[in-house]
Amino acid sequence: MKLLRDLLDKQKPLFQKGGKLENLYYLYEAGETFMFSPNHTTSPKGAQIKDAIDLKRMMITVVIAMIPCLIFGIYNTGAMHFLATGDANATFGDKFLLGATLVLPIVLVSYTAGGLVEVVFAVIRKHPINEGFLVTGMLIPLIVPATIPLWQVAVATIFAVVIAKEVFGGTGMNILNVAMTARAFLYFAYPAQISGDTVWTYVGENAVDGFSGATALSVVYQAGQSGENAVAELSQHNAGIMDGMFSFVNMFMGYIPGSIGETSTLMCLIGAAILLFTGVASWKIILSAFGGAYLMGVVMNLLSVNEYMALPSHYHLVMGGLAFGIVFMATDPVSASQTETGKWIYGLLIGALTIIIRVTNPAYPEGIMLAVLFMNVFAPLIDYYVVQANKKRRLQRATV
Fold first, then answer.
1. Distance in angstroms (rounded) separating the CA atoms of residues 214 and 238
2. pLDDT tens, residue by residue, 30-75
3. Which are the contacts of 374, defined by CB distance < 8 A and separation ≥ 6?
4. What is the pLDDT of residue 48?
5. What angle do CA 257, 258, 260 make, to 5 degrees?
6. pLDDT under 70 in the chain at which residues?
7. How far, in Å, CA of 93 to CA of 72, rounded?
8. Where are the domains of the chain?
9. What is the phi/psi pair of residue 39, to 5°?
10. Distance, CA of 97 to CA of 268 (rounded, Å)
């Protein structure tokens, strides 16, 4: 490391003011800070807060919290493939290796495409490269299916970084969650590769008779349309291949078709524990979002007019991308509510809206993506009224 440090120090004058490569200083700075902690400090003027965490460490903590979802997603991608093709002799290594060959290129493309956009904007605007994409670059691969074409990952990533982030000024200024914007772009621009029963499981060859790559949400939706019992349909789906594929326990563990990192509620909760222990995420948003989803599920049970609405509330908590969206998307400190009371309202509405969209929208059985993006837009309004209410109470106390 000392050799690399010396090499960077030797080349630094070329990029500093007056050097031959002055215009590329922030490109050099990006590489330096990627490999080493920056040696500069804030201005001595004004109040200073001493803390062991900075933006880079915070972002790395979120990436570490997503590693359980990534590792399980790699394994599950391979496991679903061998299940679909009827290969009962596949080992853990076979499943993990196949999953890695499908998932890791998506991660690489996401980081490469988004990183290039960050570099271009840093050079044009002459500011350091923001560390925010460390998280976004990992989030995007985890919310897409393993069968997604790599060029679509690149296009969606570039679109999301430019439209949802850079046009607002970069990290810390964006209104919408960048990764969710990428997912929304894919869903509306290339629906054939992001929806339907065939995109969630990589088959590669003819699947065995009786296998369906439908997700749990799709199965429940079809049950609601046909009048069949939703829980019974879940337990019977693919029964000839894997008994109880969509049992509550199986959905909680994540051994089901779906986006790479979203299938396992358990892995999402492990990530949540890391974020809460380190103080990176808000427990109020997480708790209120899960609570809002559960309570809305109860309301749907009371208003039940079809089997989807009659689905027990606790099933909603382990289906689709609800857990992943709440833990890693709703808690985004930039696009979420900032006031403490606002966080309760923000999370509660995300959970409730997710279930409403799932159950009442026949064209879109999942709801967490739209719920998060919708509440991103309303987060400033929530904070505004919370602050106004606080000011009103203080004025009333002052006049007493």
1. 10
2. 666 656 555 655 555 444 445 555 666 788 899 999 999 999 999 9
3. 353
4. 47
5. 115
6. 1-2, 4-6, 8-9, 11, 14-16, 18, 20-56, 128-131, 204-213, 224-227, 233, 235-244, 362-365, 400
7. 13
8. 55-193, 265-387
9. -100, 10
10. 22
